[in-house]
């Protein structure tokens, strides 16, 4: 009974590379998060005294410190029948580095998504990121624009695009600043005071 000696995915390691470059006069940030994967395989089970001389497949390194496992079995042809024998095996490994973009970065150059990598698509959509992505923002229901920065309905405003009032800097314009609020309220107060004063006369 020979145990499964297939490829083993041992660990994933992210290597981050950051940079920026000028594209069409604009500084564009790029960040790669390459993924390093360690693969492990074994030299096929064989007679124990022979294992020291066996080499790993090309491109693979022998495990160090060497761990010779003696629990494997190999088969030999003996007088017309297969006989299972106890033998030895040793591990081989190699690292494979796969180029990848950090989340919020796209394409072969890993450029930053519209709206910035911290808030891709201004938090109102999904950036098609990753090495195979094209950096397009797929906007939520009520948003539009290349970075989902606008309301789809031009008559709606506000952070959720649900308000009929015009918003600026995170507030409806009708509540804009204390000066405008006072100017709007003042004419009502003197009127009510005048009417209450005029009654006793
Ligand atoms: C980006 O990729 C998406 C999905 O693959 C595709 O629908 C869209 O047309 C692409 N946009 C551009 C500008 O290439
Ligand atoms: C989009 O806007 C419509 C109309 O104001 C609203 O009824 C709906 O709830 C909004 N959708 C989301 C996901 O906010």
UniProtKB/TrEMBL annotation:
Disulfide bond annotation, renumbered to this chain: 139-148
Keywords tagged on the record: Disulfide bond, EGF-like domain, Glycoprotein, Membrane, Signal
Signal peptide: 1-25
Source organism, top-level taxon: Eukaryota
GO cellular component, one term: membrane
Domain EGF-like, first and last residues per copy: 111-149
Subcellular location: Membrane
Protein name: Stabilin 1
Native source species: Myotis myotis (Greater mouse-eared bat)
